[in-house]
Structures are given as C-alpha cells and as structure tokens.
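Morning!

This is the sequence you dropped in the shared folder:
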Amino acid sequence: PVAKYRLLRERIERWPATTGVQLLLAPRAQLDELILVHTRDFVESFAAGDLGVDAMRRIGFAWSPELVERCLRSCGGTIAAAQVAMQHGHACYLAGGTHHARADRGAGYCVYNDCAVASRVLQRDLQVERILIVDTDVHQGDGTAAIFADDESVFTFSVHGHENFPSQKASSDLDIALPSGTGDDEYLKQLRLGLDEALRRSDPDFVFYLSGADPFIGDKLGR
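The structure's back. Tokens below.
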C-alpha cells in the first residue's frame, strides 16, 4: 500500500509545466512540533524502536529506521503544506492523512497524527485561531476526534462508513456515518449538508481537507 505515494508523485511529475504545480520534498517533523500533540514518551519510544510488540501490532507496520524516517516526513509534509497554504491560499500534500493516531499511541497504519500536529503548529506559530478538519476517508478519523474532543478551537468533521474500521468510533464534532453501498448522489448530498453545517458552526480561519481515496467503489476495503 505504501507504493501508492510513489506512484502518485510519478504521475504528477509527468504533468505539463503549464499546470503550475511545483513538487517539493517533505521535511521532517521536529520533536517540538510532535509533542504539541503527542506525548514525549510515545515519540521517543517509537523513534528508538522501544514501543513493544503489542503497540506495533496496533499500528500495523514492522518497526525500522526507515519507518521512523517515513513517519517524520509524512507528518512534516502536512505541516509544510499548511504553512504554504497560509502564504498562498492553498496547498496539497500527497501523503499524510494519519487520522487514527492518538496522543499516546498509533493505530491503523498511523503513527503521528499529521493534521493534528499541523493544526497545533499553525496555532502556535501563525496565530491561527479556528481550524476545521474535514475528513472524508472511508474510515472515521477517531484519533483526530479524540485529540480535539475538549478543544473548541479545532472542529472535527468526519464522513465515513458506519460499518468500517474502527469498530469503536470516537465522537467528532460532526459525524456522518453512511451505510455500506452508499452511492454517489446520496454521498454528495450528505457531504454538502455536512460541509454547510461544519463551516457554519466552526467559522474557520483555516481548513484541512483529508481526502482519502478509499470511498471509491473499486477500493477493496471501502465497501
């Protein structure tokens, strides 16, 4: 599954220069940024490979130095994209979306919660007050919801499959849980209604859109 990131970048590299797209290398997230969301013990234990078998099983990857590097850049790329968006109005990052990670643990192929960390960096460094996270991955953004459960400055909105992973859902500020087999028309109707409500209730200064390709009918886990 990790190959999709390389394949996506290679596809975009073939686009004509007239598109105006500029591809940049994702930087590493720094410790002072990660601990705005994650516990220092979790960050340092993962970096050292000391999380333990059960914790790594919950994440779903085998530990390696290369995995640490990938996770630092996966999170750092979202931070960088958010900073660019503050300058230019918008930016896109090809990886990230690690929304199952919580403050003290990873899960579901997610180690650091990139949108959560980037939100805190924007609030700390650029005085962004209100943030909206729109998550349309077919799996609920339970980690993001848990991290910001008691924080009115970050509004979490998740559109996801009711019967899909995780089995135990968290409570976002706004959840739309759709049944398996939902088609385009109903999906888009619910998304429009949800976006209108989320924007009205959050009145955001900045929006993260976590896209997720897995609602696509051809995704083997999307339902």
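Headline: The beta strands are 131-135, 154-161, 174-178, 206-210.

More detail when I'm at my desk.
O.
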